[in-house]
Specification:
Strands 5-6-7-3-8-9 form a six-stranded mixed β-sheet, with helices on both faces. Helices cover 28% and strands 27% of the residues. The protein folds into two domains: 5-214, P-loop containing nucleotide triphosphate hydrolases (Rossmann fold), CATH 3.40.50; 227-290, no CATH class. The protein is α/β, with parallel strands linked by helices. It is globular. Helix 4 packs antiparallel against helix 5 (139-151).
Length: 300
Amino acid sequence: MNYTDVITGNNLNKRFGKFELDVPELHIPEGFSTALVGENGAGKTTLLNILGGIRRDNKGSVTYFDGKKIDDDGIMERIGFTGTRNYLLPHWNGKQVRELSDMLFDSFDKEKFDSICKALNIDDSIFGPKGKCISKLSDGNIMKLMLATVFARKTDLLILDEPASALDPLMRDMLSDILRTYIAEGNGKRSVLFSTHNISDMEDVTDYIIVMDNGKVLEQGFVTDIKEKYILIKGDAEKEKAASEFMISAHAGKYGFEGIALSEDTERFAGMDVSFEQPDLFQICVALLKQNSKLQMPVL
């Protein structure tokens, strides 16, 4: 598929002790929603902080909107960023969040912000004359507050770190609707990049996916292409040993096994009496991450 990059990264590198983020090449397509998937500690937040201009101590280069730099005139105005819980200072109240956002961004609309906060049912006790600190809010309400600050602006790119993790199921579903609307109203010029450790929550709003593990990119591409690249294999339990030789990962149960393999390897399963299905993103991501994960099943 032909597309223009909204973000292009080259030779991105950042070390923290024994951990190293190492991404030689990164392409985020314009006009689409991109999911950055990986285990906790995979480097997702570090990468998003670099792409969002929050970190400046990394090696490599990042360009936006066809070659522009983060400090070029008007670029930060076009980018909406939400971080982890501590992205907003805990002693701030809602009024301070509103006033600071208005001071920092020319396109911030106070009335729209208030309307979004009301629509998302954010605890209004943070907005009064003696508004309580946002540290008193639940994680879900803090995330909704951060989302309200970016949706109250005129932006062309959203970079969202784990936006769904703290939200309840109803709000996660609404967030997907909001992101789809945001992109649709941009006429191909609005883009979203968000991280998640559970793609099942956001699969229906994911057009492009990047799978990370231990600071490196394992896989990336448009969802339609990724689903064609891999195949879900199912078969009887006694076939699992022979079939696993050609699979990326497999899971055996009482009544059979299933696993993920490359679609180009389906001929290798000839004569094994197995079935083939199209996997979902969750199954593909888990299979890829299992290859290098340090997780082990504990003895119970």
